[in-house]
Structures are given as C-alpha cells and as structure tokens.
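thought: fold this chain, then report.
action: predict
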Amino acid sequence: MFLLSKKPKTIRKVADLNIHWSAEDPFTFVSHHHDEYPKGNAQMAPPLELISGRNLGRDYQERFGFRMYHGRVVPGFPMHAHWGYETVTIAERGYVDHFDTEMNHGRFGNGDVQWTMASSKYEHCEMYPLTDQENTNPVHITQIVINIPLDRKNGPNSVNNVWSESIPVFEEDGCRVTLYCGTYGGKELYSPNADSWAVKENGVRILKVELSPGSRFALDAVEKDVTRNIYYVSGTSMVMDGTEVQPNLRFAMKPETALDITNGQSDSEFWILEGRPIGERQAAFGPVILKDLKEVRSAMDDIRINEFPEWPWELIDRTNPIDTGRELCRADGTVERPPSE
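observation:
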C-alpha cells in the first residue's frame, strides 16, 4: 500500500510493484526477476538440497535468495507459447539459453537484449543456466511485452539480439542511464524486428536510470498522447516534483510536463517506459493477444493441442553446453556473435 504526503501534479496514478508490473498501452506487461542463485552443479542447476521442498514447475516463492520459476532442474521457463506481440528480454546479469520453433537457439546475457516478434504462434524456452561452478550466479532479467496492431498480427515471426556492446550508457554526476529503446543523449536504438511498434514515430522509449545518493535526473516533456510510466524498483526515497516518494511503486505520469528527480540517501534504480498507444480494442488471455475472445479461444485450443507435437527439440527445457559463448544460431546454420567473442 502506498502513501504520499501530497500527490505531485505530474502524476496521474500510483500503483504497487512486485516482480510483475502493470503497464499502459502500447506495453501490456513487464516481469522483473532478480535472483541470487548459488554456484551451479554439473547440470548448471542449484544443488538439490536448495530446491527440495519447492513447488517445482511453478516456484515463484523466493527461498535462499532465488526462485526456480517453471524450471524443474535449471531455473527458468521451459517451452511456452507467445502469440500476437513482441517481447524485449533484457538480461542485465546472468545468462539466458533459448531454443524456439523457428529453429533459432543460443545464449545471451550480461547486458544483452533479445527482441522477439511473435506475431503468429511461436514457442520457445528460456532457461537460466548457472554456468559458474565456483561462485554465485546472480540473474537479473527484465522482460517487457509490447503489443502490435491487429493488421500486423499473424505475420512472420523473428528473433534478433542487440549485444551489450551496442547498448548506449550515459554516466554523469552520479547518474547512470541505460538506453534500451528510443532516443536519449543524442543516441537512438529501436527494435530490429519488422512490424514492431517500437519505432521512432511511435515515441517508444525504455530507459533504466541508476542514481547515487543526492544525484539528479531530468526528464524532458514529450507529446501529450504518449504514455509515460516510472517504475521505482529500489532505493529508500527520492523527491519527485517536490514530493518524497518511496520505492516499489509505479507512477503513471503526465508526459507533457518536464520532471526533475532528486535521489535520497541511498542508491536508487527506476525504469521509464514511454510510447504512443495503439488504441485498438483487443482481447488477451494467457500467452495470446488477438482481435477478440473468439480468436483468443481458438489460439489457446491450437496451443493446447499442438505445442508438444510442434516442439522441434528433444527437451522442453533444453540448455546449451556450459562453455557456450554469447551467440544466436539460425536455422540456416549462420551464427551471430558479439564483436568481443
């Protein structure tokens, strides 16, 4: 429950935060996972004594500093479907091993971003291999779902990585800003996928802002029809528009008003999501966002009947060998790697 001494004039709405964040059009959902996994065993998994007694297959309760999510051996998310939207998976720390029904597979992490356009039915697995067998394995993953218009649904699917070496980072006077999408500080970065809504003309922007004690961040005004949300995920307090606010809150902002944020007495982190709404009536259930409930029900039936027969890999929670580097392997045999590897 949130309490404010007064509501800043630049804020429209305040909501609580947990590992799942609510969002506004064109964004539909955000998951923000911070887990401190122990050193991995030979299976790149936590030791058995730390996962016994859990509800394996659906473990969202943090114990010993981590969750297994839907993983039963390696943490993460075994085979599951997406249909009708794009996801932006930001692996701030740790690795993600992915395999999909387009025959893409690979490993990304430690600052890399994967953009997945699941315009049509698409299945993949996303596992978190604990590759360090001597030290702990922190895994910090933020996944952002961006919707697409109806006339772009049921088209081609695509997967592309933006390696950490290409992610703009700005540091000045105790303020560190990471640009994952949009325009900031003279730099631009948008979705590499065709038919994405995350393009310049739609004003989509994704920023992570980290402030040291007492530092400031200035947020410029944008067009009135753009949604703007601030997700204050860690810290003790910061002053926004003259009002002290606490962490673990989402602030839906008035975008046409500039804003100054001054941090409190400990390090703070917040995320900014902006974008022009698609503004269409659509229906959603589970992993599907389509035109109406009839289409959604038909898609869910298709997934239930065909997801296992159509999965092309021998395991639904497949991982790469422990010594695999950061790479994206395509169905045609081509391999994409960052310039440093």
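thought: worth noting. The helical segments are 48-51, 293-306.
final: tokens above.
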